[in-house]
Amino acid sequence: MSRPRARDVGVVIGTLPTGTHNAITDVEGVRVGHTTLIMGDGPIVPGVGPVRTGVTAIIPHAGDVFRDKVAAWVHRINGFGEVTNAEQVRELGVLETPILLTGTQNVPRVADAVLDWAFAKDPEMGVSTWGPSPVVAECSDQYLSDVRGRHVRSEHVAAAIEGATGGSVVEGGVGAGVGMSCCEFKGGIGTSSRVVPAEAGGFTVGVLVLSNFGRREHLVINGVPVGRSLVDWRPPHSEVNPDGLGSSIIIVVATDAPLPPRQLERLCVRAGGGLARVGGLVSTTSGDFAIAFSTTNRTAHDPGALVLDQRQVAEAVAPCQPESAMPAINYLFQATLEATEEAILNSMFAAETLVGRDGHVRHALPLDEVLRLLNRASGA
In the annotation, is 140 catalytic? Predict the structure, then answer.
């Protein structure tokens, strides 16, 4: 039986409504796919196993992303990590491939696999036009998996991309999230969405996270510092993070608001606020990045005119009327922050206990105890 999401047990974050699936796929056209790799048990044999890793693909729209690029930005919250081709995204302000998430040492192979997949689809790439620049982001799954084997292969990447779907998104220890930890419990993939008021455009913001950060005592859920009461929960804090690994997060923000890259950067900054609300410290060896894109602000591969001109973009984020109302962009900021916070919690609520290499265990967040602490804090 699958574990519940945060809202399933009454943990409601923020005030804006969610989309239909409370997922990044509530942004029309966005799809998500996973390939999960779990093989072997027992002591690590470097380069062989046990394997607890995978790959997750986020597809910005149903068309050809290379030929119909989306406005995008990559924001470094803390730079102890990797997002391939981040500089090109910031330079040109567009994304031209799916976004891939995986374990740290898999990054070169995943990027190469994206090229294999893209070249197979478009024979003109690298011949009559330039080739795609894959965007691959990572967190370390070394605590639970043999990383020397770099076990994600081209066929796994292609399966994640080709198998990507809309609708509900599988969360927790799946795809890139298999070997991830969060606040010394099991972490991984989580997602959430928000819809801004009609007077602010009625836009949707969806967030998907790969959570792999934090110390147990810092965990905050809906404003309640539950982590302080879980420090000695089995196994005690001092036993569960002996190597200091697990200090990163990737946050992917999608919206149908036709934002230009500069405004997408501002959404990325607010995603960092959602991370902080859960207890993320952005520690010195933490690779924390936010990647944002707009599904409705597109640029043709052979540049001519934007699908939406700058006047339309400006109107989309203009202040609401009357002038005293909250500017529309502030609703998008709020939506990003709330969806990021809830996506992180969903990554933990949905994740199941997993035993990895050398008998390393990441226990699922103890939901009964968490709910008891939340109810006590609220006086229920």
Answer: no
Torsion sign (Cα): 81, 87, 92, 98: negative
Q: Check 181, 193, 286, 347 and give the catalytic one.
A: 286
- Tens of pLDDT, residue by residue over 164-197, are 999 999 999 999 999 999 999 999 999 999 999 9
CA dihedral 348, 290, 71, 55 (to 10 degrees): -50
Q: Is 248 a catalytic residue?
A: yes
CA distance readout (Å), 302 to 66, 130, 310:
10, 11, 18
User: What is residue 242's predicted lDDT score, i.e. its pLDDT?
Assistant: 52
Whole-angstrom CA distances from 289 to 122, 144, 237, 262 are 30, 22, 26, 16
Output the pTM of the full model. Answer: 0.94
Respond yes or no: is residue 283 known to be catalytic. Answer: no
What confidence tens digit (pLDDT) does each residue in 115-143 have? 999 999 999 999 999 999 999 999 999 99
Domains and CATH numbers, the chain: 13-234+242-356 (3.60.70.12)
Look at the chain and count its residues: 380
Contact 152/20 with Cβ under 8 angstroms?
Answer: no
Among residues 133, 211, 247, 248, the one annotated as catalytic is 248
User: Which token pair is 312?
Assistant: 């339309």
